[in-house]
Design goal:
Layout (H helix, E strand, L loop, with lengths): L3 H11 L8 E5 L4 H17 L2 E8 L4 H17 L3 E6 L2 H8 L3 H18 L5 E3 L4 H13 L4 H4 L5 E3 L4 E3 L7 H11 L15 H16 L4 H30 E2 L2 E2 L5 E2 L6 E4 H5 L3 H14 L6 H16 L6 E5 L2 E5 L3 E6 L10 E3 L4 E5 L4 E7 L3 H6 L7 E3 L5 E5 L5 E2 L8 E2 H5 L6 H6 L1 E5 L2 E5 L7 E3 L4 E8 L1
Parallel strand pairs: 1-2, 1-4, 2-3, 4-6, 17-23
Antiparallel strand pairs: 5-6, 7-10, 8-9, 10-13, 11-12, 12-13, 14-18, 15-16, 16-24, 18-21, 19-20, 21-22, 23-24
Length: 476
């Protein structure tokens, strides 16, 4: 068998995960898996031609142990003369406010940290130490929750988001192999006691379900589950190609007009021809409905897909009394005579919404977020006036009319280095926000134009006289 670093480099090349000249930030918790990933990539960096840095996130959960983890990672980075990115968050507070599990809150905070590193161009990609064991646990948990082939695809070698790329070079390596490698290197690591806490679902799968399956069903259950993920990923890619081809054929442009025909509108939404949808096999029907929802930045669970298909069947049999299926996230599906419309749900006024004037220079406190947003003329203002014209800069004719508010359905924004606007809903989707966070997410508007969105890389802003404007946020 090849030495572990050579097996990893072959996997990296087979999946084109890393490229010569790239900056790679390795996410290091201090545990054996992430420390091994760092040491392996250090062995391979000359061969791969990459520049390595280290990222560590303190979740505010484990007190002194977490502080010691942070110190250990800092020492590891210093020992190898690597740049270190550190950040902290309060996962328990986030879990309580958003009514989500501690695991989910910690993951969201960590992903936000990675997104910030990529958005600030501190690295071209972030490498995480997901192993074959992690893959097996993920697939089993997804299967037990009734996932389809997409869920059974498990953890992908590469995940692309608005901010950049997350890569997983160790998906074919077992945890114990990484520990053997570290022992041979005489490299220490930190043990996370929370991995033994059976209040976490993943820990119960790891400590109870998989050992039972290994002892009583299949000694190679982890490899078998990883093979399921590999098969499902290939099939999912096939289906994606097919649905990408078929979806435009069932979409109906515009909206029905009185007296017949159709009218073109600029409103968000998608209509699907029911007759064309029903000409497809059931598996394709389900995927077309999910693809239509995803085109709008909204997901559909299996039960919601079935509810829409049942709605159509009701119509064919005796006419549907209830003609709407709520999808959540501000969207619904409405049954019309010949089509299904995916459209913005009717929104009730919320007392927690906000719209606050932002003067330049000046600041405004957003009580709903516990944060302050500031606008100022940049210190390099003199240089900015004489700077060459930037075709991607945004000129603000009336800076006194800036407003800080929560984003609304239909808002569009052009991030930095993009030539066209995108729906804010689509830009927020990769951040994996809770419904409450998503609803209150702040933007800055100049009239009808969105010029700043939290956590999204904003374009250069200029006043009418050419001064460069900076918008910043600080937590209280």
């Amino acid at each position: 068998m090849l030495p572990l670093p050579q097996r990893v480099v072959e996997y990296i090349r087979a999946h084109s995960l890393l490229r010569a000249g790239e900056g790679v930030t390795v996410a290091v918790s201090g545990g054996a898996d992430s420390v091994a990933l760092l040491r392996i990539l250090l062995e391979l960096r000359n061969e791969l031609g990459i520049v390595i840095s280290v990222a560590h996130f303190h979740h505010g959960i484990r007190g002194a142990d977490a502080d010691a983890d942070e110190a250990f990672v800092a020492g590891l980075a210093s020992a190898h003369d690597l740049k270190l990115h550190l950040d902290r968050g309060e996962a328990r507070v986030r879990a309580g406010k958003s009514n989500i599990s501690l695991e989910t809150a910690a993951r969201q905070l960590r992903q936000g940290f990675f997104a910030q590193i990529l958005q600030e161009h501190k690295a071209n990609c972030v490498a995480t130490a997901h192993t074959l064991d992690d893959q097996a646990e993920t697939v089993l948990m997804k299967a037990l929750r009734g996932a389809g082939s997409r869920g059974l695809s498990g953890i992908f070698p590469e995940h692309r988001c608005v901010a950049g790329r997350i890569v997983r070079p160790l998906l074919e390596v077992r945890r114990e192999q990484l520990r053997e490698y570290l022992r041979a290197q005489k490299q220490e690591w930190r043990e996370d006691a929370s991995n033994l806490d059976l209040s976490f679902a993943r820990n119960r799968v790891r400590a109870r379900a998989l050992p039972m399956l290994r002892d009583e069903v299949n000694p190679s259950v982890e490899h078998a589950l990883a093979h399921v993920a590999e098969i499902a990923r290939a099939e999912e890619q096939y289906w994606n190609d097919q649905i990408t081809r078929l979806l435009p054929l069932v979409i109906v442009p515009g909206e029905p007009a009185r007296g017949g025909g159709r009218k073109q509108t600029r409103s968000e939404g998608i209509a699907i021809d029911i007759q064309k949808l029903y000409q497809q096999p059931l598996a394709v029907q389900r995927r077309l409905l999910r693809a239509a929802a995803e085109k709008l930045g909204c997901g559909m669970e299996f039960e919601q897909v079935q509810a829409v298909l049942h709605l159509i069947a009701q119509r064919a049999e005796r006419g549907a009394q209830n003609k709407i299926v709520e999808l959540g996230a501000g969207w619904r599906v409405r049954l019309l005579f010949r089509e299904l419309r995916f459209e913005v749900a009717e929104q009730k006024e919320s007392s927690t919404g906000y719209a606050l004037p932002l003067h330049v220079p000046g600041e405004v406190r957003v009580a709903a977020l516990g944060t302050t947003i500031r606008a100022r003329i940049s210190e390099d203002n003199g240089k900015a006036k004489n700077a060459s014209y930037n075709p991607h800069s945004v000129r603000l004719p009336e800076i006194a009319e800036l407003v800080v508010r929560n984003w609304r359905a239909g808002d569009r924004f052009r991030p930095a280095r993009h030539n066209s606007e995108k729906r804010v809903k689509e830009l927020l989707y990769p951040l994996h926000l809770s419904e409450e966070e998503k609803r209150l997410w702040p933007v800055v508007a100049a009239g009808d134009r969105i010029v700043w969105v939290r956590s999204i890389d904003s374009p250069e802003l200029r006043t009418e006289t050419g001064e460069r404007l900076s918008i910043e946020e600080s937590a209280e």
